[in-house]
Known about the structure:
The chain is an alpha/beta fold. Helices cover 41% and strands 15% of the residues. The chain has a four-stranded mixed sheet. The chain has a four-stranded antiparallel sheet with strand order 9-10-12-11, covered by helices on one side. The chain has a two-stranded parallel sheet with strand order 1-2.
Amino acid sequence: MIVPVTAHAAFEKAAEYFKIKIKRIPVDADYRADAAAARNAVTRNSVVLVGSAPSFPHGMVDPIEELSELAGEKGIGFHTDACLGGFVLPWAEKLGYEVPLFDFRLPGVTSISADTHKYGYAAKGTSVVLYRGPALRRYQYFTSTDWPGGLYFSPTFAGSRPGALSAACWAAMVKTGKNGYLTASRKILETASKIKKGIQEISDLYILGDPLWVIAFGSKTLDIYKVMDYLTSRKWSLNGLHHPSCVHLCVTLRHTQAGVAERFIDDLKAGVDAVRKHPDANSSMAPIYGMAANLPVRSVVGDLLERYIDLLYKI
Length: 315
Ligand SMILES: *Cc1c(COP(=O)(O)O)cnc(C)c1O
């Protein structure tokens, strides 16, 4: 699998589960997958190339057109991970935003994932994968013909699956409807524009790339994780990212309520001011993020995460 470094960790998880070698390709200055690096990475053992629309960390859409053409030329699969963008980008395009092609209009794209439980507004636990044709779908089927329990077949990785979740997902999609998705996307994109503008006006901060609504920002002068800690104290919940150090706000429908974007920017300004004035003040998560980003032995960090999961099971 040839996967941009910014592609979701779920690809690494799949590679580990299925014993597929994963090759990471870098991103360019705009945090979009480096297509030239992808070309260099393809060998005769390559099975699939991946691009995100957009990526979870920085909200940037990879050059899907170039990457999928390369996959087509090499006769391998191309997967567009539109988990985050599948229910926003098509509406953004209709609303006149600049959205690069990322879907089956590109002949090299062979599969697409889109999370109904994100911007599809369904409950957690549903997602869809789309294939270019039924022949590809067959690879996910499992059949057992000699089991004493009878003839067994299963179409998905999970065996028993909750029908109620699918029904609830269907209901959410029908209830939201095309107009609902269009309106939600319009509000999200407009709110995100306000927030981006607000961030750009804060001299100590910079936005990574030029995203539509998943806004990652960092600082060349301040410890951005300390700014995040301040925002946490103001009840904002941002994701801490690393390589490079930054945080992101994934704008959702909730943020589009009156006054929320303004309050976020006010709190962010106050946070930046506080860290500027007291750069050495103690904070809670900042040292942990700093350590996790810089520890040379990555297995130690992995071990810490496993211990954390152990604790979750204990509670
Ligand atoms: C949410 C998401 C996924 C899937 O994440 P899981 O936690 O494995 O369900 C994949 N790609 C992107 C870009 C996502 O945002």
